[in-house]
């Protein structure tokens, strides 16, 4: 068996630290921050499978998050309630169906037209939530959703398990033969089709899988908060944050984008301590990263760590 590379060792150490965290540092607030970081990590990993691997920019990913969350809200309001065990996969299923319905026509578009179409779809959904407030609760949302566990430590481990399993599955897909085909489509779609690849089929499949995990994460968030509302799962800034996190971490790898999501989610909460300057500091850091690490923080760091031993061996 080949030796583990330094980036892999660091990743294992990071996961081990997360697993041990509640045992050595009992802070309910910080655990809540880490739970939301885990949820955002799944958002970003799901987005990266579509946009990072196929190059099909989705600027309205909050639509699928919202679909997963609101089906849980509707089941709570009109169906007598639903447990997380059923609500989370149901949220993924509804989002996947919506992803198929939107993906088939939208993926015929290219470049900025696809980005605008997905952004418009999410914006329309956001307005519909307000218009049909009798069903959706409008800006107030829907309360009374069954909580995930009701215990901060159990919530933390549930979120961590959900994140690790989701990212592992998405990573496996991205680094399989299917992922290779998706990247081939991204680099040169006509050439891929000339080689016998059904580009439309694979892009739609990526759209559906991406939507499925986004919907599950949205439902998970609804159960964690005990609430569903446009500000929590459907607002346009959520889609924007997902894109920023993926780009800062490094797109097209799942792991790097996921690390970027986790790091920025935690950093954003810490920067709140700076009051009204937190947004200025946050955006300044993003600009600096994009200027000096255009491939993303963790992609750049990973490349340097991987090349380090090779460079020493060549001396």
Structure notes:
- It is built from 15 helices and 2 strands.
- It is mainly alpha-helical and 315 residues long.
- The chain has a two-stranded antiparallel sheet.
- Helix 2 (28-54) packs antiparallel against helix 10, helix 3 crosses helix 10 (199-225) and helix 4 runs antiparallel to helix 10.
- It is globular.
N- and C-termini, Cα separation: 26 Å
Strand percentage lies at: under 5%
The unreliable regions are: none
SSE pattern, N- to C-terminal: HHHHHHEHHHHEHHHHH
| Overall pLDDT | 89
Q: State the strand order across the main sheet.
A: 1-2
What is the count of β-strands? 2
Total of helices: 15
Query: What structural class is derived from the secondary structure elements?
Result: mainly alpha
Largest sheet, if any? 2 strands, antiparallel
Task: Report the principal-axis shape.
Answer: globular
The gyration radius over C-alpha positions equals: 20 Å
The portion of residues assigned to helices is: over 70%
Write the SSE topology.
Blueprint: H1 6-24, H2 28-54, H3 62-78, H4 84-106, H5 112-131, H6 133-136, E1 142-143, H7 152-174, H8 177-187, H9 189-194, H10 199-225, E2 227-228, H11 230-233, H12 236-249, H13 255-270, H14 278-292, H15 297-313
Antiparallel strand pairs: 1-2
Helix pairs in contact: 2-7, 2-10, 2-12, 2-13, 3-4, 3-10, 4-10, 8-10, 12-13
């Amino acid at each position: 068996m080949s030796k583990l590379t330094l980036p892999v060792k660091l990743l294992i150490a990071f996961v081990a630290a997360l697993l041990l965290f509640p045992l050595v540092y009992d802070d309910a607030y910080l655990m809540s921050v880490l739970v939301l970081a885990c949820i955002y990590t799944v958002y970003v990993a799901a987005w990266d499978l579509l946009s990072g691997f196929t190059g099909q920019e989705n600027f309205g990913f909050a639509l699928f998050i919202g679909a997963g969350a609101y089906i849980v809200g509707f089941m709570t309001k009109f169906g007598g309630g639903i447990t997380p065990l059923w609500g989370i996969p149901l949220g993924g299923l509804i989002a996947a169906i919506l992803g198929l319905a939107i993906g088939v026509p939208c993926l015929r578009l290219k470049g900025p037209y696809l980005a605008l179409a997905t952004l418009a779809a999410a914006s329309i959904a956001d307005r519909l939530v307000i218009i049909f407030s009798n069903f959706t609760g409008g800006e107030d949302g829907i309360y009374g959703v069954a909580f995930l566990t009701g215990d901060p430590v159990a919530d933390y481990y549930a979120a961590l398990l959900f994140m690790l399993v989701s990212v592992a599955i998405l990573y496996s897909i991205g680094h399989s033969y299917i992922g290779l085909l998706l990247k081939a489509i991204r680099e040169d779609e006509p050439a891929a089709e000339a080689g016998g690849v059904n580009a439309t089929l694979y892009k739609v499949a990526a759209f559906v899988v991406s939507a499925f995990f986004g919907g599950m994460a949205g439902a998970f968030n609804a159960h964690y908060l005990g609430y569903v509302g446009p500000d929590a799962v459907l607002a346009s800034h959520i889609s924007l944050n997902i894109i920023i996190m993926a780009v800062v971490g490094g797109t097209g790898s799942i792991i790097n984008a996921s690390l970027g999501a986790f790091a920025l989610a935690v950093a954003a909460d810490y920067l709140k301590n700076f009051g009204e300057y937190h947004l200025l500091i946050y955006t300044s850091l993003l600009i600096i990263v994009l200027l000096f690490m255009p491939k993303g923080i963790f992609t750049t760091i990973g490349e340097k760590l991987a090349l380090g031993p090779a460079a020493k061996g060549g001396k």
